[in-house]
Amino acid sequence: QIWRPITATFFFPVGPGTGFLYLVNLYFLYQYSSRLETGAFDGRPADYMFMLLFNWICIVITGLAMDMQLLMIPLIMSVLYVWAQLNRDMIVTFWFGTRFKACYLPWVILGFNYIIGGSYV
Asked: Taking the first listed entry, what is the main subcellular location of this protein, grouped into a coarse class (predicted)?
């Protein structure tokens, strides 16, 4: 069933407890994906698409090995991780004025997802 990896990537169980987490993760996807498109991959949309496809394939393989049913947050985290590694020394501001280097942003977001959603994935 070839459609299962695709639906696992784009599905997120939105409910009373997960609606806010879903919106925040969509914001992160939009923000850092657009920063990658206009920054490191400026003028090279095929390279950006290949990076997304490669990340997606790696996430699907890992998801099969680890029996993960939802792959949206890992894909968002992979885009965020690529941006953070390309901008390691940039100072970013997270909620409530917390400032730190961009290389620590994926770990902060991972902790944030755990606190808000009660799960890493």
From this structure: endoplasmic reticulum
